[in-house]
Every structure is written in structure tokens, then in C-alpha cells.
Amino acid sequence: MAAAGSPVLRFDYPGTGNSVGEEGDPSRLDAWLGGIRAAAAHLRAVTGVAEVALVGLRLGALLAAAASRDVRADALVLLSPFPSGRAFLQELRAMALLAARPADAPPAVGPEGIDSAGFRLTPETAEALRGLDLARMMEAPARRVLILDRPEGRAAALAERFRALGADVEEASFPDHVRLMSSVQHAALDCSAFARAAAWLAPDLVPGVARAGPGRTMEASAPRLRVPDAVERPLRFGPDTGLFGILCEPATATAIESPAVLLLNSGATPHTGTGRMSVRLARRLAARGIASLRMDLGGLGDSASKPGRRDGLIYCRDMVEDAQAGLDALAAAGHGAAVAVGLCAGAAVALRVALADPRVAGLALVNPGRFVLGDGVTQEEAIGSAVKPATAYLPRLTEPAVWRAILRQDRKASRVARGLSERAARRLRIGAGRLRAGLTGRGYAHDDVLHAFQALCDRGVRTLMVHSVGDVTLGELEAQAGADGGQLRRMGGLRMERLAGADHSLMERAARERFADLLDDLLDRIGTGAADVLRGKGPGPPEGTGAFRVNHATGNSPA
């Protein structure tokens, strides 16, 4: 829409994303509708536009229509709208009940509300949403309305209702809906519905007004968001300022010299984190006097696309440079040492930036699916190639059905067999590299994870590695370090933990809180010693890798 000439403001509702508040606060529906009113007023103030259109997707479409009269919206674009709050709640409840959950997790639907994809809708908010029904509107929500609905949607009656109230309504299909909602990667592709909405709004553009808008916006003072115990501000940094992040600092300066925390994307999730985990972690850390930067790596979230690479890819080797740019941004704000935190693919980036940059004094890795980076893969490709520990498959080799699947080259069986054989070949190659290095002092394989972690231990970097109980990523850990990560468990400076009742992305509230406690403990153990590590005064050789020697019988260095 901006490319078509419209100044655009997208925002987070109160209690979501980077905004203030929590999802469990009272009067959430009133706060969300108030957020739409505030956003429209701000857009008018900073750009000087005379007319405002509201554009909403699914629940956002329902809220946009509900707020349109108060906002004095001139146009309304509804993408796959829910016609009522009751319809939204029915779908949300069904999705929550059908979603797979860890064995020890509480029910998805209970007296505290509906838990879905890491978020909670409280009973109070659900009851307020039940009162929203667009079919009962007595006035047209806007002069012009565009409704783009999925084939199985129920917006036809809504269109007729708005026409009866005097609105000029245009209807069309939303053919990209399923593809858009199924995957981050698919959402990054061109969407015909978005193009249709931009073209539909174009006739309302007033020549000259849109071009003047950005100039007025740029003159606004640098924004600050004040929350309890913290002050946050957005940063643009890195090459051509193409990277984006939120710097969260304690509201009160502290005399204690502690490392900052660099929070990296979990998979392809934006910088707010799974279930808003990165936002909550950042503000919790600020209350302890610790600064943090939650950032989007290149091609993810609000950061710019990478030239020659599609958006939404993970496990990209050039993300190490992006993470180093995040360290530069922290250093420019006065925070020289940092602890890198990553979940899933973000854990691999955290590990590799720690190896590349001595400013990293600690690591917190959650469910790392891989330990090396490459040209990048989609989230689906990463999931499709994941193989559990061998012990998960061995008992099933006594089942005739399993052998029948192997003999007929069943797709899943073939993938598992291929994955296990690739692991065996990799272990042989890495073992040969260690033997060669033992004889010549060099020649370790680039993906020798034990070598990488020992180098960090020698440098004095403390590491926390957390896995959800039964997570598929334990297969990669077994392939790299033996059953249950045995060789890593014997390595100094590295602590390994298991989270019960946790899924891969830590969508469960209790799992996120447990990880936050573990991160607090890691930061306490690092303490002010991070400055010594940064200056090369920590344990082991300052450069970390020059004096690396591993006793492969124990997994430890002789020191």
C-alpha cells in the first residue's frame, strides 16, 4: 500500500506485540478498539491525510468494522472477516482443542481462558467479544467497503447488510487465504488479495498528500515507550540501516556492570517472539537492571530483505553478520558484552556469533534444530528433515508394519532412514577430522560441535542449553554429542536442562517462565565477569581457539 502511494500505519493492540500491557489485563476489547482510534488519530496527525481507511485481517477485520464509525473511516477493507465475535471464538476454541500439546501441559481450554499458539484469551475478553455482531449494525461502517473472503467464509450476508445500510460494497474471493495462513514463507510471497486491496484504495488517494506524509513523519522526535521498570526505543542499524530491533533498557541506571542480552528470532518468528516471549523476557530483564536488544535478522520481521534471497529463510550463514550488527548496536548504546539467546534456528545463529565475536560472554540455546548454518532453508524444509534420536526408532524395528513401510519405500520411513544414515556418515567424517587434528593440530570439521563448544568453554563463555522433553531436536543433539548429549554434559561451563510439559516453541506459559528462571540463573553466574571475558582475562586462552585440545575419551580439554 505504501508503494501504491498511501501512508500506512500498522500497530500492536494494547497487551500484544511491542505495546504496553498484558493479554490478561481487564477490558481488553475496549483497549483494542481504543488502540484503533488512537492509531487513526496519530496517522492523521503525523501525515496530514484527510481520509483514513481501515484494513483488517480475520479478527482485525471484525475490530476494524466495529471501530470504523468512531474513527470516521472513509473506507474499509475486510480480509476474511469474522462476522461476529462468537464466530471467532468458535474457531479459536476448535483450533486450541485440536492442536497437539505436550503430555504434561494443562488443557488448552479451561477456567483461565483459551490458550492457543502461545497466547491466552481470558473469559472476560471472550465474553466481551461475544457482544460483537456486524449483522446487527444499524449504520454503514464506511462509505466504501471491500470484502475479500475465503471460499468457505460467511461474508456474503455481511455484504448484503452493509449495502442495505447504504455502503458501496465490493466483494471478491481471497484465494491466497489458506496459503497465507499456513506458513511464514508463504506469507512472504506476493499475495493477490493484498494487491487487490491496494488497487481498490488507490482512487481515494489525493495527489500530493501522500507524498508530503513521509516528510512530516520523519520530523517526529525519536519515540520512547515507557513501561514499568523499562524504557524502549526502536533502532535501525547494520548495513544501510536495514536491520530492526527494540532496545529495552532499565528505567533506572545501575552501577553494576552486567552483560546485555541479544534476543534473536526463534525460527522465522518476528522479534516479539513466540507468544510474545522476547518482549516479556526483555522487560523482565530490565526490571533486574539488564539491557537487551530483541532484533529481526535479515529477511525476517521488520528487517530488510537480503539481496538475492527470498524472505523467511532460516539457518542462513550471513545471519551471523546480522547478529554482530546487533552487538554493534548494543555497544553503541554502552553495552559492550552480551549474552546471545536463541530458540530453534536462532540458537544456531547465537552459537555461531559467539564463535565469531569475543563480545559474546554467554549463550542460552533452546531446542537448537541444527548447529551449523548454510544457504538457508524454509521452516517446512527444516521440519521435514528433522529426525528424532535413534532410540526413538529402534524399538519399532520389531514391528512388521515398519519393515513393510521400509520395503515399499514409504516417504516417512525413507526420510528417517536417510536421516539416520547421514548422521552415521557425519560422525565418521567428524571423527576423522578429530584424529587428523590430534596428529597435526588442525583439520577439525567445520561442523564439529564438540570442538565449537570446547572453544567457547576455553574462552570462558558460559552456555545454557535447554531442550523440551521429547523434542525432535534431541536427535540432532544425539548425532553431535552422543545419547542425551553425553559428551557435552561433561564439558565445563556448559549446563544442560530439560523442560517438562514444553513444546518445541515454548508456547506453554509454564515452560516460558521456567526458561526465564534458567536465563536469570545463567546471568547471575556470568555476573560482572563478562567484562573480564571481553578483555581476555577470563579462563582459558583469550582468543578461545588457539590452544584448543580435546581429550575425546572424556570430551574435555586437558585443562
Automatic annotation (TrEMBL):
<keyword id="KW-0378">Hydrolase</keyword>
<feature type="domain" description="Serine aminopeptidase S33">
    <location>
        <begin position="260"/>
        <end position="369"/>
    </location>
</feature>
<dbReference type="InterPro" id="IPR050261">
    <property type="entry name" value="FrsA_esterase"/>
</dbReference>
<dbReference type="GO" id="GO:0016787">
    <property type="term" value="F:hydrolase activity"/>
</dbReference>
<dbReference type="InterPro" id="IPR022742">
    <property type="entry name" value="Hydrolase_4"/>
</dbReference>
<feature type="domain" description="Serine aminopeptidase S33">
    <location>
        <begin position="1"/>
        <end position="87"/>
    </location>
</feature>
<feature type="region of interest" description="Disordered">
    <location>
        <begin position="533"/>
        <end position="559"/>
    </location>
</feature>
<protein>
    <submittedName>
        <fullName>Alpha/beta fold hydrolase</fullName>
    </submittedName>
</protein>
<dbReference type="InterPro" id="IPR029058">
    <property type="entry name" value="AB_hydrolase_fold"/>
</dbReference>
<dbReference type="Pfam" id="PF12146">
    <property type="entry name" value="Hydrolase_4"/>
</dbReference>
